[in-house]
Amino acid sequence: MAATTAQPMGSLPSGLGICTTAPDIFYLPELMRLVWILVAATRVIQPNPLGWVMFVSIFCFVGTTLWFFTFLCGGNKRSIWPVLDVGFHFVAAVFYLSASVVLAFITVALGQLYKQLCLFQVMSYVTTLFYFLHTIFSAI
To answer: Which InterPro entries does the entry link to (predicted)?
Structure first.
């Protein structure tokens, strides 16, 4: 019986290489849209479903920023990092999808601010798309 060996995962880029590879080029658009969603959609209503939207925005902003600087400084050379990369971006994508649904509900519920909230909702779904694309390209 022949022994099988596990295929090593591809190496992750570090330094300025993260600005040129397919999954990692999504860092900058993710970070830019995180700030837009956090700052823009801050109208408070009771009960406050925007708390989840803000939590997701802050969590993903801090996580993506730490992740970005870890890759930029080259601290991602162990074999576990590709799995962690896929895992983090998948969790962020699911969180953002749930926050986008909450934001869509609020957009419909607050009819007087519909046009303004539509922009925030679109930005939220675009950010969700970037996280899903990052997850898919990291898993390949």
So the answer is: MAL (IPR013295), Marvel (IPR008253), MARVEL-CKLF_proteins (IPR050578)
3-state secondary structure of 75: coil
Q: What is the pLDDT of residues 118-135, one digit of tens each?
A: 888 888 888 889 889 988
With respect to residue 1, please indicate whether it lies within any of the assigned structural domains.
no
Model pTM score? 0.66
- Give every CB contact of residue 71 below 8 A, 6+ residues apart in sequence: 12, 13, 14, 18, 24, 27
- Which domain range does residue 40 map to? 15-139
d(Cα 38, Cα 36) in Å, to the nearest integer?
6
DSSP H helical ranges for the chain: 27-40, 50-72, 81-109, 114-139
